[in-house]
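Exercise 7.
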Amino acid sequence: MPTPVVLVAGLHGSARTAAVDRLLADHPGSLAVHHDLREVVRGRVRRTVRDPTGVLDTADLRLAHGCVTCTVREDLIPQLVLLAPRAALLIVDLWDSVEPRSVAEAVDCDEARQTLRLTAVLTALDAEALPDDITRGERLIQVGKPAAGGDRRYLAEVLARQLEYATGLVLHGGDEDDRELSRSVLAHLAPVTPVHTAGSLPSCTGAALCAGELAERVDPATARLPCDAQTDEIVTAVWRSRRPLHPGRLFDAVDELVTESVRSRGRFWLAGRPSRLLAWDAVAGIVSVEDGGPWLAALPEAAWDLVAPARRLAAALDWEDGHGDRVQHLVFTGPGLDPVRFRALLDSCLLTEEEQDAGPPAWARYDDPFAPILDLKETA
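Solution. The predicted structure, written as tokens, is:
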């Protein structure tokens, strides 16, 4: 039977180490593999293998291209396959700024599936640091946590992806007030993900996970987005509409939308681009808008069989005559956020009834401030 593999991610090294130590103690015969990427920009990586008693092996690696992808491809997966026959559980202790999705997909690949089975993706979080870090707009390079040369990602962006992709979250450190506040934050950002403490972790030797299904939980077309909620001062507001958005009016509202919320994401459509599902992703004032592919309503019905079942299900739940699965579905979270004002601002960005009645030929003539971003990414 394939050896179970659990990934432990997280920007907070002390919390991650505490979670890995607990897993080693709870699972006799387990081994933990860690790649220290502090020198990755120079093509140097140190790999460590340890068990509950301490370090068993270290190796200094030189990589042709200093990045996480080549570290995983050239060393991590071969190392896991090599260790699998003598391990009851393999624990991948990911470097601070590594996002777990790419590693999960590498473990759950055809070549490794006979030897390895992915059973859990945990993200460990420092309860004292989490509420502040999710609001921080610094780049990883500014805080000394890049995962590759030229890494331009932001700290809060990585933290959001780590906690939203995980199958379980692990809180460590801080006092009772810190833990209560962190649980409130997580209840908004990842409301259906179990939250554990580093001293009480779930078993990680169960059934295999499917990396494709994990991806569907966060991909824009199929994401399980949070619902309306309020916990003390933290508010999550959901906005939905069928009417298309005016590109110019939405662009003018972007700064207000992202600076007055901490986290927002979802899918939307612009007049002038009726065939394209657009993805909205913003955290700590940094916003990304990307083309997420075609709406199903824009595809010939014969092509639907080529689309994943989860995508067809999401489209069916959103389907409405006249619009198909085209929908505005955005979710905003922040302290003291005013849902009424946010929804009014977004409603003001929609086409008026007169504009909507003019139809696609008129919409195509609108100036589109998003075009330099979306058209560049489409042709890249």
